[in-house]
Structure formats: C-alpha cells, structure tokens
Design goal:
The chain is α/β, with parallel strands linked by helices. It folds into two domains: 2-132 and 232-273, D-Maltodextrin-Binding Protein, domain 2 (3-Layer(aba) Sandwich); 135-225, D-Maltodextrin-Binding Protein, domain 2 (3-Layer(aba) Sandwich), CATH 3.40.190. The protein is 26% helix and 19% strand. It has eight helices and ten strands. It has helices at 10-13, 70-81, 96-99, 166-175, 187-195, 206-216, 246-258, 261-269, and strands spanning 46-50, 89-93, 109-110, 124-133, 135-140, 159-162, 182-184, 201-205, 220-225, 233-240. The strands form three sheets. The chain has a five-stranded mixed sheet with strand order 7-6-8-5-9. The protein has a three-stranded parallel sheet with strand order 2-1-3, with helices on one face. Helix 4 (166-175) links the parallel strand 6 and strand 7 (182-184). The protein is elongated, with a radius of gyration of 19 Å. It starts with 9 loop residues before the first helix and ends in a 10-residue tail after the last helix. Mean pLDDT is 87; it is low at 1-29.
C-alpha cells in the first residue's frame, strides 16, 4: 500500500483538539500579492519547510521537491499563484513541533499536516485550510465490523478513540454506540487495544487511519469515513506569527479551492487509496 508510511509524524498532529479554528488572517488584496511585493525571506525564492522523512501520500519518494504527493503538489500550486516558478521553490527540513513553536522562522511557510487550532494560532499564523480532515473508523481484517458499510452497523461494536479529540466527539455524537466508548491517552494505546482485541475499532482522522492500518497494524483495514461535519477540521500552511505573507497565501489557497484544483489533487493523491463513505 502506497501510504505505508503516511504520517509517522501526523499521528499526533492530525488529531487536533476540539478548539480547532479557522486560519488567522484574511486574504490580502491582489495588488499586494504580486511576486515582487511579497515579504519573503529571500528575494526571488519561496522557502518551504517540512519534516524528514516526508511521508506518503503527502509527498512521494521522500522528496518534497518533485511535486508529487498532495502537499508537495499543493505547495507548488500556491507558489505558482504567487508568481514563483517551480525552480524558485526551495525546501528546507523543519522538525514537526518546531514548525509551530513560538519564535522567528527561517521558512516562508511550512507544510506538514498541521491541524489548524486556536492554541497553535497563538504562536504562528495559519493560512486558510487546504485539506478538510475526515473522521474515519478503522479495524482489523476479520473483525465484527470489517464489512460494515453503514453507521448503524457500528452501533453494537466496542469502539475507542483518543481522549479530548474530535475523533472521540464523532464517535460519541455521530456513531452513538450502545457500548460506552473506550478512551485512551494516545492513539498508540488505542492501537494496542485493537491488537489485543479489547476493542473492535478505532475512530481517527483519515490520514492517521491510513498510517495506522498500513504501518502499525499487520492486518489493518479502513472501514469507512464518517459523514462530513459542517465545520471540518483542517490542515493549514504554517507561517511566522504576524507574517505579511499570510493573507496572500490564504488568497492563493482559496483560489485553488474555488477553481477545483484542491479537489482534483485530493482525488489524484489521497482518495484513491480506499476509504469508502459510511452511510
């Protein structure tokens, strides 16, 4: 499976707390977002940070610069909207937690499956979201819910999720299981419980579900995605707090969403991996 390593770093990142919020800056007007007027770190260069390894399906071949994988492709699409050629995009390695830690940044933006949240937005800026995270049910092959296609078929299952996350909220409020949900301090503990057959399945965000089923479980299986919520959890580009670029990057992301580019790239790099919709 292509996504075998998808999100060794995102297992913690994508399970954002329930205080998730929108990006922190409004789009700038077009006349301030021309390439020559952008407040980039180095003139003529668009500096982008991400962690290493850079995992599938967000990147391909551990090479962010090849334009393959969802986040790489979106980054180059944003750069193009801002007037940069692909050759002017320069990548640098930034450890995941350092991306949204307080303080000055060496990058213009960072892209690394970082969920937008109010707590993180105290230290950094976020663009508007470039990926709407969906909550997902995973299990192991042969379990009582492995063949489930509807939410109703999950009602009798023993399900678990990490405490304090949107995953737990979805488990409680959307699935509404008859059995009391199991709550874990970490996703790793939930995975261990699933391995030990103490629970039938776990609710996590979709990218983390890909990682768990491909890398942490020998016989992992994605049962399906829960219905989309009115205000989805989102991944956003990370920028230095108060960056003059934030509005322009958000404007570019919004344009890519409006013209269908984000949807097309998601179809190309993410949704082909097999995550059916639960009805």
């Amino acid at each position: 499976m292509v996504v075998v390593a998808a999100l060794a770093v995102v297992g913690l990142a994508a399970c954002a707390p329930e205080d998730s919020t929108a990006g922190s800056a409004s789009p700038s007007s077009a006349d301030t977002c021309g390439k020559d007027q952008l407040a980039v770190k180095t003139a003529g260069t668009f500096s982008v940070g991400t962690d290493k390894p850079a995992y599938e399906p967000w990147f391909s071949g551990d090479d962010p610069a090849n334009g393959k994988g969802y986040e790489s492709a979106v980054t180059y699409a944003v750069a193009k909207k801002l007037g940069f050629e692909a050759s002017e995009v320069k990548w640098q390695t930034v450890q995941f937690n350092a991306a949204f830690a307080p303080g000055p940044k060496k990058f213009d933006l960072d892209v690394n499956q970082v969920s937008i949240s109010a707590s993180r937005a105290k230290a950094v800026d976020f663009s508007t979201g470039y990926y709407d995270v969906r909550q997902t049910v995973i299990t192991t092959a042969g379990s009582k819910i492995a063949g489930a296609t509807t939410i109703a078929q999950l009602a009798d299952a023993k399900l678990g999720a990490q405490v304090g996350t949107t995953s737990y909220t979805s488990l409680r409020d959307v699935i509404k299981p008859k059995q009391q949900p199991a709550v874990y301090d970490s996703n790793d503990l939930a995975v261990q419980a699933l391995k030990n057959k103490q629970i039938d399945g776990i609710v996590v965000d979709l990218p983390t579900g890909f990682y768990m089923t491909a890398a942490q479980l020998d016989d992992g299986k994605i049962v399906g995605q829960l219905p989309a919520t009115e205000k989805p959890e989102q991944f956003g580009f990370v920028l230095e707090k108060g960056s003059k670029l934030t509005g322009c990057v958000s404007q570019a992301v919004d344009a890519l969403r409006a013209d269908g580019t984000l949807a097309n790239l998601q179809k190309q790099w993410l949704t082909s991996e097999g995550a059916p919709e639960l009805s």
